[in-house]
Design a protein that fits this description.
- By secondary structure, the protein is α+β, with helices and mostly antiparallel strands.
- The protein is built from 23 helices and 19 strands.
- The strands form six sheets. A six-stranded mixed β-sheet has the order 1-8-5-6-4-7, sandwiched between helices. A four-stranded antiparallel β-sheet has the order 9-10-14-15.
- A hairpin with a 6-residue loop joins strand 14 and strand 15.
- The protein is globular and about 80 Å long.
Length: 647
Amino acid sequence: MSKLVTELHIIGENGNMFDTDMEYIIPLYQRAYAWEDKQLTQLIEDINDVAEDSNYYIGSLIVSKQFGRYEVVDGQQRLTSLYLLLNCLGIKTKPTLTFACREKSNYTLRNIEELLLENRSKIDMDRIEPGIQRGIRILSHELTKDHFDRESFMEKLAKIIVYRIEVPENTDLNRYYEIMNTRGEQLEQHDILKATLMSYLSDDSEKGLFAKIWDACSDMTGYVQMHFISKNNAVREAIFGSEWNSMPPNSWQKYKKAISGTTQETTGHKICDLIEKNFKVEDDEGYVDGDVRVRFESVIEFPYFLLHTLKVYVSLYGVTHEIATSKIVDELLDDKKLLDAFNRVVSCGITDTGRIADSKEDFARGFIICLLRTRYLFDKYIIKREYANDSADGEWSLKSLHVSGQQSKKKAYYGNSEFTRSGEWTRTNDWRTKTNIMMQSALRVSYTSPKVMHWITKLLIWLSEADCKNIKNDAITKFDKVAENIAIDAVRENFFQVCSNGVYAMGVNTPHIVFNYLDYLLWNDDRNGKKKKYSDFVFEFRNSVEHWYPQNPSEGTFEQWKDGVDQFGNLCIIQRNVNSKFSNMSPEAKKSTFKDMIVKGSIKLRIMSELTEKNGDKPASLYWKERAYKAHEEEMLGHLKKACNIE
C-alpha cells in the first residue's frame, strides 16, 4: 500500500483512530456538520451488518498534511460521526478533531459527555452547535434501544476500516476539492458493476448504447426523460414519444435505432455549442400550475434502485438459483453487497431458456432495458419529494412529466399521475392521487432504512408484470389498494400475530407501520366524512414511540403506572427532535406544553390529547390511566382490525 494511504481501525487493541498525535482539522470551506437520522441510522445499520469473518471498509478520509496536522479535504461528515459515535459508546477519545473558526462546534465536541448526562448546569447552551447536538441525540437514542446488543456491536466495530489518503504535497486543494465534488473521488460499486455488465457486450456501439441508458438512469434527480439530451430532443422522443411520457420500448433493436450515431456523446456539451450566444443548459426542472418552478428528489439512491430493479428482473424472467434450496436474491437490500447480488444472478441464475452464465450478453441487454422501464415506472408511480421554486420545504408528490410547446421550444411540465379509468373526471384523479400519496408516504416514513423498503420492490413488480398490463387498463385505479395491502400484511404479521390473548402491549417496540397505517385509516375516514378535521395532516418522519402517560413520571409529581403503561392505547409516535422532557411529563402537561407539536402531529396523538380531560373530581392523568386510555385503545384497534380483517 502507498505511503500516502493508511489503514485505520475505528477501535483496536491500541486504542481508537483518534488516539493520535496528529490533529484533524475541518477547514472553513467545508460545510458544517449536517448528518441526521437517515445517515446516522444507516451508519449504525452498516456496522451491525458486518460479517464476523471479515473486515469492512466504510469509506475513505482524504487529508492534506498542513503545518503538522491533517486538514480534512473530504470525509468530514463521516469522521465527525465516528467521533460522536465513540463518545456515545463511552469510549474516550483524544481531542484531536477540531473545526477551524467554528467555536460552537469545538465547544460542543469538548462537552459531549455533559450533553449525554444532560448536565445543563455545567454547559453554556448558547455555545452548543445544534447540528452536532442533534447527532449526539440520534446516536444516543439508537444505542439505547431495547434490542441493541452492545457486545456484538463492539465486536463488529473493531472490524471497521477507514482508509486515510494523503494528497501529494503542493496539490492545489481548491481545484482538488472542486473536481472531487463534481466527479466523486471514489470508484463506487455501481461503477464497477456498469463496467462488468458492459464487458458482456462484444460490440462497441452496443456498449455505448448501454452506457447512455445507464448514465441516464443513474441520475436519480428529476425524471429520467430529462437525462436523454440530443439535438431537437430526437432521442428523448424516439424513446418516450412526442409527449415525452410513453413507456420505453421493450426491444433492443428499437433502442439501437433511437440512439444510433449518438453512442459516443455524453450529457456534456461541445465547445462550439457552449460559445453560441443563445446557448442555455437544459435542467431537470419543470413547472406546475403556471409559473411555479419545481424540482424533485428521489426517496432512494441509485445503488438501491439497482437492487430493486434486479428483483424486478428476477420476477419478470422467473430467475431461480441453480441449487433449488438457495435463494437467488437476498431479502435485505444491501448496497454494500451490490456486486455480490448481481454476480449470484449471473453465475447461478437459470430461466426457462437456460443458464444466465451461458448468455451474459442477453442478460446485459435485458437488464438495461428493464432498468430504464423500471425507472420510468418509478418516476411516475413512486412518491418523490417536490420542492417549489427555491423553497427548502418539500412535499410528497406523484406526478408525471408532460411537454408543452412545439419542436425545439418544447418544455417540461408536471401534472398528477393518472389513476383513473378512461373518461373519468380530473377531480376523480386528483382524489385518487392524494390517496396514493398518503398510502405511500405512510410506508416511506415507516421504513426509514433503504435496506428494508421492500414496499417499493413490490409496487414496481406489480407495475411491471405481464408487460406492464396494470398501467394499461383499469387496474391502475386500484394501485392505492396494492400499496395498502402491503401495510395490512405488515400490521398483521408484526403486530396482531405477535400480540397474544388480546393484550397489545409492545410498548416502544410497536412497529411504526402500525401507527402510520392507523393514521392513514383515520385520515381516510375523515376525508370521506363531513367534519374534515384532518385535511391538514401529512406523514412526516415521526421516529420515536412514546408513552402518553409516562413510564417514569417526573419525581414526586404523580404516581407510576406499572401494569398498563405499554398498552397500545397509551402509545403515540412523535418526531425524535421533540424536547426530551416530553417522556416524563404527565398527559395534561404534555397537552399544554406541546400543543403546537400535537396539532401538527399524528392523528392518534391529536385524539389522545383531546381525550385528556379531568372527569369529575379525577385529574386528567388519573382518569386517562384508569379508563380513557382503554376506550381509546378499543376504538383504535377497531379501525385496524376492520381494515386487516381480524376477528
